[in-house]
Predict the 3D structure of the following.
Amino acid sequence: MDSLLTPQEILYFTGMRVGGASLSIVPGEIVTGSMSFLGKRGFASNTSVGISDVAAPAGDVANAVDNVSDLLLDGSALAADLTQLTFEINNNTRNKPAVANLGNIDIGLGRFNVEGNITAYFKDRTLYDKYLAFTAHSWSFAITVGDDAYVIEFPSIKFSNGVIVAEGNDQDIVANMDFTARRDPTKGYTMAINRFSDAVGADLS
């Protein structure tokens, strides 16, 4: 039985804004991420409405072993060995309905919030001391995919929580560090993703 519908049904969603996004990097796994959207309205059609097909990208997906590099804290290579790196973005979007209108008339944008986590083997108290001092730090890392490298930068973060986890015998001690990004007063942004082409093997620091 042919699984394709005839005629083809196409679902459209208009006025979409990115509500949030997340990224997770864990040893031995592929790099995973997600995005959420909030839109004005949706409808169905049998015909294409101002869009065209986009071919899926070729090549392997990024993994936490071969494609992640240049982990920099305050511009210097991070000495700690990480067991997890995650962050989540929240644009605080909201519906804006109105009388006599089907769906939303617009999508409201709120504050741009970024929270993340760095978990590392506990070799010394360097990261923990940064949490206790509650001072601002810059944090960045690179993900290389094919001939392109994406440098994800947080110019100003503060560790909002720090826990030294010692679960018991035959378990590694880790430093579980939550961070919150804030708008850097000098650079004028909270987070940046910079793309560098043909950057395989390049020093991104």
About this structure: The first strand starts at residue 10 and ends at 14. The chain has one domain: 10-49+60-197. The domain at 10-49+60-197 is CATH 2.30.110 (Pnp Oxidase; Chain A). Confidence is low (pLDDT under 50) at residues 199-205.
